[in-house]
Write the structure tokens for this entry.
Amino acid sequence: MLRIHFTRADLTRVRIAERAHLLWETVLSLHRLRDRWAPGELDGWRAGARHRLGADPERGRRAIGVLGALIPARGNFPDFLTPSALHTSLGESLDALAGTPRAQLADELDRMGGFPGGVPTWLRPLADGDRHTLGLLTGSLRDYHRASVAPYLDRVHAQVDADRAIALRGLLDGGTEGMLAGLRPVLRWNPPVLEADYPMEHDIHLGGRGLVLVPSYFCARRPVTLVDEELPPVLVYPVRRTGTGAGRPAGGREPLDRLLGRTRSAVLASVDGGCTTGELARRVGVSPASASQHASVLREAGLLSTVRDGSSVLHTLTPLGRRLLAG
């Protein structure tokens, strides 16, 4: 059982990651590639990832060998693989990983329990911050990400954006506690403790530091957190899957599809909960310019409302749009 203990101050310091965390998705996707349990929609992804990894056998074997040694099928993997900072590109994330302090590298490798005989000899220089070994690790992450995650990023971003919108709607309707209560069934809010099934007994006392919630496409069944409790608290949890593939409108809206057209119908459904134009484009699988144009038409018809938020615009459903979507 995982238990995360909140103070009153922590409830004011909960935030949701504003986008998919590329390194968490990369690391967790390796679990989904190897394990027997995964959402059915990942069957096609798994076959495609294996095909692309096999297309360049030398790089594919090296990437799987390096990452497989650091990310055991069961047990903890080092926290330095998933830096807390949320970067917009994989390159920035890998730069942050390469800049991990030497003491943290050594401590986390020493703590790992996934190696039967200890850290493999060829990985030991990593504990000393060896640049060549760090380059081998970051290169392997880049090659694996390119083959397994990058071709799927539209869907990853769409599902994470949609889950974030649901969580934010819970925040608006019921405050932080309402949002936490809405994370069932994976997470259970029993004030002042957030609980989840976990392979071991693990208690985290936030102590006023707050918590970053990271919805993840490749996380499955139960949440994941960092091993080192001294690091800023992070909880990665499985997205609530919408069942909509990138670029493909959800089913069950045939009358609305006939009325508005499939793409515009998908735009209307994707705005539910609120989103920016960029998020809308990723959810529907169209360009930002096309998403903006469709949103304008729906806004003129009184189905959407748009407000500016800094350099972005936020789209929400009007009462009429919500009634139309509900049938």
